[in-house]
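Rotation project, supervised by the postdoc (A.L.). Task for the rotation student: set up a whole-complex structure prediction and record inputs and outputs verbatim in this book. Inputs entered:
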Amino acid sequence: MYTESIVLTEKNKLKIVDQTLLPGQLKYIKINGLEDSIEAIKKLKIRGAPAIGVMAAYTLYIIANNLKSFSRNRFFEELKFAGIELKNSRPTAVNLEWAIERINQVISDNPNKIQSDIAKLLRKEALEIHSEDRDSCHQIGINGLEIVPEKANIVTHCNTGSLATGGWGTALGIIYAAAEKNISLHVYVNETRPLGQGARLTFWELNQAGIPCTLIADSMAASLMAESKINLVLFGADRIAKNGDVANKIGSYNLAVAANYHKIPCYSAAPVSTFDFDMNCGSDIPIEKREPDEILDIYNYKKGNSDLDVYNPAFDITPAELLSGIITEKGIIKQPLKINISKLINHN
Amino acid sequence: MYTESIVLTEKNKLKIVDQTLLPGQLKYIKINGLEDSIEAIKKLKIRGAPAIGVMAAYTLYIIANNLKSFSRNRFFEELKFAGIELKNSRPTAVNLEWAIERINQVISDNPNKIQSDIAKLLRKEALEIHSEDRDSCHQIGINGLEIVPEKANIVTHCNTGSLATGGWGTALGIIYAAAEKNISLHVYVNETRPLGQGARLTFWELNQAGIPCTLIADSMAASLMAESKINLVLFGADRIAKNGDVANKIGSYNLAVAANYHKIPCYSAAPVSTFDFDMNCGSDIPIEKREPDEILDIYNYKKGNSDLDVYNPAFDITPAELLSGIITEKGIIKQPLKINISKLINHN
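Outputs recorded:
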C-alpha cells in the first residue's frame, strides 16, 4: 500500500527515496557514509522526524561497517564525530537525537568487542529501530481510528506518511488505517509552503494509494472550515515538550488556531520517541531557520539578493491547549495533556 | 513615492504595468482594445479591484475612440458588448461592475450626441473615475492613520498598493501614509499563494519605497502573532456586502481568524465603490474558482493532469464580526458594521 522510503539491502547497502525528485520521479539513491547522509538530511532528500532518525541509525552502522578493519581509535572517533554531525544536521527533530543515542548506547555497552562485531550489533540495533518505528506507525494508525469520524473530511499538513517514517506514517498512518477499514474519507492536503511537502509528497502518496484527496494552498483550510467541509485536523510532530506543546512543520500552528476557532478536533500524531522531557514547554525547543531562497525562488527575484528580508522558520509551536490530543503507539493522550503525558509514558 | 500602474498618455493611448513580469521587470504594455483588456484581466497582468475598475473605464473610452467613425449601431453595440465582456472577466471584484455602469450611464444620458462627442465624454468620465480613485486612496491612507499604533508591526495580504489601484493603494495606502508621517513601522508581507501577489508585488513596492518589510509564507503570520511580533492586520476588499462581510483574496479569512485568536486589530481598507448593497451577506458574493495549475505549477507534476483534484478559489469571505472596522475614504466604519455601514454611506 505504501512506498518504503528507507531500505537496507541484503548486501547491507543503504538506499533512500530522494524526495526532492518527487512527484516527478521515484528514485532510490545510495547513502555510502556520513557525507551522503548529512547532504540528504540538509537538502531534504529525506525528511520527517522518524525517517531521519531511522536513516541516521543506519548511517552509523554503514560507517562502522566501512571502518571495521581500521584501528579501534579511528573507528570509535569517527563514529563519535558522525553522531555529533548527524545530530546537528536538523536541530528540531528529536527522533534524530534519540536514534543516535540508542546507537551510542550499544557502542558504550560493548567496550571489549572487536570492531566487526560492533558493526554487526549496530546493524541489529538500526534494523530494530526501523522495525520499532514501523510497528509504532502501525499502532498509531490503529489507535487513531477512535477519533476518525464517519464520513471523515480531514485537513493534513506537511508529509507524515511512508516518506516521513520507517512505516506507513503517523498522521497519514491513521488515514491509511481508516482507508483499510473502508471508512469514507476525503483528505484536504495543505501544500505546505515553502517546500511543498504536502503538495509533492502527501498528495503524491495519497493519489498512489487511491485515497480521495484535494490539494489546497495553506491559507485555504480556514475557509473550508468555515464552509463546514472539515471535521478533523491531523498533523505530525517533530518534537513534543513535557507539557504537550508540539513543534511541527511551519503552518501547523496556523491550522490549529483555525481548527480551534471552528471547534474542529485537532490532533498531533507521533511515536513516543518524539517526546523530549528535557523541554518543559514549546519555547524551549530550538527552531531551525532556513534560507530566504526557499521562499523567494519561485518569484523571479535575483538570486542571493541580500537586501531582501525573508523570515523562514522550518517549524512552529502549537501549544498543548490547542490540541484535542496526541496520538501515540501507546494510546491517545487526551487533555489535560501535561498530566496524561507523564501518566502514559512513565507507566508503560 | 509609488509606481502608476495605469496611464492614459497625452496621445490617448492606454498603458498598464504588466504585473506578471514583476519583480523581474517593470514594463508598461499597451491596451489597444477589448481583447487586450480582457487578456490583461484574466492573466492578471492587471489585478486589484479598484485598478481593474479604472482600466475597464479607460478601455471603454479606447473602444469608443477607435469606433467613433463607424455607424451609430456598431458603435453602441460594440460598447454594450464590451461592457458585458469586461464585467464577466472577473466576477468577484465589484468595482469593475461599478466603473462600467458609470460609463454606461454617460452613454445612456447622451442619446443624441454624435459618436466622437460621446468618446470625449467617456474619456472625461474615465479620467474622473481614475482621479476619484486616486483621491479615495489618499483619503483612505489619511483616515487609516488613526488605527496605526506607534511602532506598528503590520501583516498584510495580497497587493493593495499602487499596482492594485489608481492611486497609492488602500491597505498599503495607509502604510504609505504612516511612512510619510514618519511613524515607525515594519510590514510583514504574506507571499499570498498561489499567485504570489504579496511576494511579487507588495514586497517589491515596499522595498522600492524604502519601507522596512519582511516576506513570509502565508502560514507563518499566526506564529509571528503568537510571538507578539504583530499589532495590526490590514488587507483590502474585492467586494463588501451590506452587512460588512468582506470578499478578499484567498487567505484573508485565515489571517482574520488568527488575528481574532491573538486579539490583534484586523481592518479591511477599501473605497466606498467596493460596497455592493445587492449582497445581503458574504455568502451571496460569487467567488471565482481558478485553474489547478496555478497551485500545481511549481511542483513538478505533469501539466494538465486531470486526475489530480485541486481546489483553487481566488477569494474568501471574512465575516463582519472578525473585523475591527472597514477603512474607507469617507471614514472608518466601526462595529457594529451593519448599522454603521448604512449610516456612513447613506448619509454622505
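Student's summary: Chain A has two domains: 6-139, 147-347.
Supervisor addendum: The CA atoms of residues 12 and 43 of chain A lie 24 Å apart.
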